[in-house]
Amino acid sequence: MFEVERRGSVVRLERVSAVDRSDVREPAYCPRCGASLAPRENLVQEYWVAEETRFYCWCRTCGFAGDVRFVERVVSHEVAE
Amino acid sequence: MLTRVGPGTPLGELLRRYWYPVAFTSDLSPIPTKKVRLLGEDLVLYRDGRGTYGLLEEACPHRRASLVYGVCEEAGLRCGYHGWLFDEQGRCIEQPGEPAESTFKDRITVAAYPVQELGGLLWGYLGPEPVPQLPRYDVFAWRGVLRDAGHCLLPINFMQIMENAVDPHHVEWLHGRYFSFIKGLAGEDGPKTFSRRHLKIGFDVFEHGIIKRRVLEGETEDDDDWKIGHPLVFPYMMRVGGGGHHQMQIRVPIDDEHTWFILYSCHKPGDLTVEDDRPVSYEIPWIDERGQHIVDYIEGQDIMAWVTQGRIADRTREHLGKSDLGVILLRKVFLENIARIEQGEDPLAVVRDPHELIDLPIERNKFGAGDEFALEFLAMGSSRYSPQKERIRSLYLEAQAQAQARQRAEVGARGA
Hints:
The complex is a heterodimer of chains A (81) and B (416).
Chain A: E1 2-6, E2 9-13, E3 43-49, E4 52-58, E5 65-69
Antiparallel strand pairs in A: 1-2, 3-4, 4-5
Chain B: H1 10-15, E1 19-24, E2 33-38, E3 41-47, E4 53-57, E5 71-72, E6 77-78, E7 85-86, E8 92-94, E9 112-113, E10 115-118, E11 121-125, H2 138-141, E12 146-154, H3 158-164, H4 169-185, E13 198-206, E14 209-216, H5 224-227, E15 230-233, E16 237-242, E17 245-255, E18 258-267, E19 280-283, H6 298-307, H7 325-342, H8 372-380, H9 389-415
Parallel strand pairs in B: 12-19
Antiparallel strand pairs in B: 1-11, 2-3, 3-4, 4-9, 5-6, 6-7, 7-8, 10-11, 12-18, 13-14, 14-15, 15-16, 16-17, 17-18
């Protein structure tokens, strides 16, 4: 289950597959130069690794190529006491 | 963006920077004209009485009749309808029905493209000048090898075939597990060399395309499958082979929804050479009399996977995973090179320097199977439709016998 806000109220949805796109938005701008990635001459390619949605992006303006990953929870190591 | 190949489209303009096979040389006998469709353009290929090849726009500019039904004169191609004559530059050099003093013909041209012959194929170039070199990739330029070329016209866009070329994982499933399943239904054994599990795949862009690498179960990065790999030759070919069988898989974009698929093979096991090196060409069937895909051979399985995706695969409904990174890389490389030509640069793998031969990297010990790879590929692949399949098989058996005799002699010499 996951939650999304829709028209001001929170709706609980059941995730039907790991690739449900309803909670995912494509990166709109290049993380390096800020150019719009919307023109089709750029590449914003969605793919999945386990539960994670990634977007491989190539920016025609500056040549940046790399993954943009949406992070729901940041998990780090515990500092040893 | 990455499926439209016609003139004026971004991909079509990129693809026009390369030479394409348009026919086998043998296709122009006994009739010296052939209809050709390439990158969405209808053309006529011909050889005139001097032996000059021409590749012209198909429709005669007079009344639009097809020049495929023309007359090959000593110099040029004459329209069968009213006799207008064109040379290989596309110039109209005769208009028999017009007054003798008329200069009308001087104002008439048809689109004309350069043609070259290499490896028993006729190649055409539809792009802008300066015309690049026709790349003399190893399999096309070698002498003294046994050549064999199965081919078919497929009702699909070429890009889904190219994406298959950077998808190593499909081998263990489509040609391994699925093939074994099909063979099992017939009470036969499946292939041995195609079933091994992929542990790792990798891709490197190089000057002629993308090198594809894999580590199979039981292998390390020191094995040929990783250390050497084999290339996707940008933008429409893939070089494969092993154990003396060398193949270029060619995917000629005919138009948005059709691809001419050619399996151009050279057989040179061991040190053996042959005299006749013109390719024997033949059609490979991929649909049976019930309209079902023929899936009991390797390329028939590939064709099933490509064709069942639809004429132009709907990428908005696909779900790519980490094992599809090669597909993603290929899409990026196409977009990068569309940008390069729009910036006035030559795209990847356009060759400008004159050369004798381009040696492409290729595994010697494919799938760690040694010489067995070639024999299994012969038995399980499209070569079964070749009119010279027995000759090819004999060549490999002869090479094996020679190698075994050499081994025995070496052992004998050591024993003495």
